[in-house]
Design goal:
Number of strands: 16
Helix content: under 10%
Radius of gyration: 26 Å
Number of helices: 1
Distance between the termini: 70 Å
Strand order of the largest sheet: 1-2
Strand content: 35-45%
Structural class: mainly beta
Shape: elongated
Mean pLDDT: 80
Largest sheet: 2 strands, antiparallel
Low-confidence stretches: 6-12, 56-61
Length: about 200
């Protein structure tokens, strides 16, 4: 009899509403959001609800709860035991606290992966590149630590790599939103009549 697929020919279908995709009648592959897989004593994959007691609250307002988690099966107790959180519904797992957070903070970014049904499978706070002060991903810095400057691939991008400054010198660069000058090879920025069109371009220049 099927416990997973919800086949009308089999009356035992206790997991048909929480198992979205099953490999066979005893093994689930994808669980409903808020549930995760565990292996029972027979080695079959089943769905178990994540513990929502571990949640993030700001001023008594619920902001994020676990939606994916890791389980081990306790043979003595005869049930799955939650070990740690893998994903949160409105935020990311902070690996330092193993709790959900809505903001990873400076020096870190939120990293998310999805399963083939488009549901979040993991969401976690990851470290930026060592030279980044803020970042959108590990290799996309938004701002840099002291002693580094942001180098973007193009003037239209606001993220890039943090490059170490080499030496020091004083130079006056003029910046103005001059129409018709959109690349650094069209202007020098060294005079009022020949300004660079943006502050970001001036820094890169």
């Amino acid at each position: 009899m099927s416990q997973l697929t919800g086949d009308n020919m089999h009356p035992c279908n206790s997991q048909k509403y929480i198992c979205l995709e099953a490999k066979n009648e005893d093994n689930c592959e994808i669980c409903l959001e808020g549930y995760s897989l565990y292996n029972d004593t027979d080695g079959n994959q089943k769905c178990q609800k994540c513990d929502n007691d571990i949640q993030t609250q700001v001023e008594n307002v619920l902001t994020s709860i676990p939606t994916r988690c890791n389980f081990t099966f306790d043979a003595q107790l005869g049930k799955p035991i939650q070990q740690f959180i893998l994903a949160c519904n409105e935020g990311f797992v902070d690996p330092l606290t193993n709790q959900c957070t809505s903001n990873c903070g400076l020096g870190r970014y939120g990293e998310v992966s999805f399963n083939r049904r488009g549901f979040i499978e993991t969401s976690k706070c990851s470290q930026c590149d060592d030279n980044c002060f803020e970042c959108a991903s590990q290799t996309e810095c938004i701002s840099c630590k002291k002693g580094f400057y942001l180098q973007a691939d193009s003037t239209s991008k606001t993220t890039g790599l943090c490059i170490q400054k080499q030496g020091s010198r004083e130079i006056t660069i003029y910046v103005d939103s001059a129409l018709g000058k959109f690349t650094l090879d069209q202007t020098t920025g060294l005079t009022l009549d020949d300004p660079i069109f943006s502050l970001q371009s001036a820094i890169s220049h």
